[in-house]
Design brief:
- The complex is a heterodimer of chains A (about 375) and B (about 90).
- Chain A has 13 helices and eleven strands.
- With about 375 residues, chain A is an alpha/beta fold.
- The longest helix of chain A is centred in the middle third of the chain and has 17 residues, at about 200-215.
- Chain A is globular, with a radius of gyration of 20 Å.
- In chain A, helix 1 (about 40-50) packs parallel to helix 2, helix 2 runs parallel beside helix 3 (about 95-105) and helix 3 packs across helix 5 (about 130-145).
- In chain A, about 35% of the residues lie in helices and about 15% in strands.
- With about 90 residues, chain B is α+β, with helices and mostly antiparallel strands.
- The model of chain B has no long low-confidence stretch (mean pLDDT about 95).
- In chain B, helix 2 packs across helix 3 (about 65-85).
- Chain B has helices spanning about 35-45, 50-60, 65-85, and strands at about 5-10, 15-20, 25-30, 30-35, 90.
- The chains are: A alpha/beta (about 375), B alpha+beta (about 90).
- At the A-B interface, loops of A face loops of B.
Chain lengths: ~375, ~90
């Protein structure tokens, strides 16, 4: 098969983060600081990425500002020719540091929003004063003039704040808001009882987004990740496995998606051992579900197989117990009733505890 | 989008030549849009100084195409970018 180069790279610089959101997309086994790639390692990763065709670099974590060399890394990425997008909670960014990032050529900032008021945001993020700090950072971002995307991460506890989040994006001068319902992997998987939206909430969010998109056309772009446990068709995860995106974890492991390590049996290569382009083209994990040959029925003969690519492999693993199965979100999946029942059960667990992300279970 | 409007690429949106795929792309926040030769011809004339009317006139002359068609196509193309906040007009 002819392998097209990736367009986007997600660089998870570190798993360290001052926040402890219960839906963190990092793996449950976090990487310790001692195991993180060095500045020079990352520089090499960016150079290799650009040379193989990566255009967009998403600099993420954990909290990327927890890396002291963040500015150097942004500069290195720009020198490599990459478009640099900083995905941050804002915590750890000062006015001075933002000015340095500006001088280093940072292209765009994506600021996360855990809630639209301090009570909600600080409870979810587990960091007192975090919300007020974030609002300061948003002002500084606006003053410098960085293009801004606000990323509102939504779940049962804060979905009622969606309209306000959209207003806040406008007040901050954001060009775009990403409204992302929590996807259930890793930490979020352990907190499904506390986080799962109800069916009514999911429908209400669909309506709110549709109305706001029409009203704000040309002023605010709304990207929307709906609650997929309540959907009829799966999300086109990663635009197809190993087709457009490549992730590099803090310790240099190269992953087809951030949750790929939940698929047992896949083996991942490390940029410390093997060139990035070789991993992308020939790495066994990348080739495991590339294209459509790996598909079973009902995907194999489905007219949507090149629209949603069978959905999410990690979700197929988690719910159907088989990473080559149809994503159970799909109405055609034999496991669809199961995900419907899970969604109904979890969304009714009003007393469910919420476990914050903790750093103690580190790997490395 | 009027003929007197002056389109420009806002901060965070830029043209980039993709050497690996051998084509021009418009890089924008979390998006990379592949440009065909027409799209590139239009955007390479967007400099924050030239009106849409002047851009269309230049394109019409360069490509020996009817002004009316060129005006319609460039307006449509730039309006679509503006809807996605990848382009502004003064």
């Amino acid at each position: 098969m002819q392998v097209q180069p990736p367009i986007a790279m997600l660089a998870e610089l570190t798993h360290r983060c001052p926040l402890s959101c219960p839906y963190c997309s990092n793996p449950v086994e976090l990487t310790a600081r001692e195991s993180e790639l060095s500045t020079d390692d990352w520089r090499s990763v960016f150079d290799q990425g650009a040379a193989m065709g990566v255009l967009q670099l998403h600099i993420s974590g954990g909290e990327p500002a927890s890396r002291r060399d963040l500015t150097d890394l942004v500069r290195a990425a720009r020198e490599a020719g990459l478009y640099t997008n900083l995905i941050t909670s804002g915590i750890g960014l000062t006015e001075k540091r933002l000015a340095e990032l500006d001088a280093a050529g940072l292209d765009h900032v994506q600021l996360s929003l855990q809630g639209t008021d301090a009570a909600m945001a600080d409870r979810i993020g587990g960091y007192k004063g975090g919300y007020d700090r974030k609002m300061m950072v948003a002002k500084w971002i606006g003053a410098i003039g960085f293009p801004l995307t606000l990323n509102f991460v939504m779940h049962r506890g804060n979905m009622h704040q969606l309209s306000r989040a959209i207003e806040m994006a406008q007040e901050m001068g954001a060009r775009r808001i990403e409204v992302a319902t929590v996807q259930f992997h890793g930490w979020a998987m352990q907190n499904r009882g506390a986080l799962m939206p109800t069916r009514e909430q999911a429908a209400e969010a669909n309506r709110t987004v549709a109305e706001a998109r029409a009203r704000l056309k040309g002023r605010l772009v709304i990207d929307y990740v709906p609650a997929d446990y309540h959907a009829d068709y799966p999300k086109p995860c990663m635009g197809g496995w190993a087709s457009t995106g490549i992730n590099v974890a803090p310790d240099g492991l190269v992953l087809p998606c951030h949750a790929a390590q939940t698929i047992k049996g896949l083996e991942f290569d490390n940029v410390r051992d093997r060139p990035l382009a070789d991993i992308w083209q020939n790495g066994s994990a990348f080739n495991a579900y590339r294209g459509t040959d790996w598909m079973q029925e009902p995907c194999r003969s489905c007219e949507r197989k090149t629209i949603d690519f069978g959905g999410c492999r990690c979700q197929a693993m988690a719910i159907a117990g088989d990473p080559t199965a149809t994503d159970p979100v799909c109405v055609k999946s034999p496991n669809h009733a199961k995900i419907r029942d899970l969604a109904a059960d979890f969304s009714a667990q009003d007393e469910a505890p919420m476990t914050s992300r903790v750093m103690d279970k580190t790997r490395g | 989008m009027t003929p007197e409007g002056i389109p420009y690429l806002p901060r965070g949106v830029r043209l980039h030549f993709d050497k690996v795929r051998d084509n021009w792309v418009l890089l924008a926040p979390e998006r990379a849009i592949r440009l065909d030769p027409v799209g590139h011809a239009i955007l390479s004339r967007v400099d924050g100084k030239t009106t849409l009317a002047a851009i269309a006139a230049d394109l019409s002359e360069t490509f020996k195409a009817p002004l009316e068609d060129v005006t319609r196509d460039s307006t449509e193309f730039l309006q679509e970018l503006a809807n996605r906040r990848f382009l502004e007009v003064t």
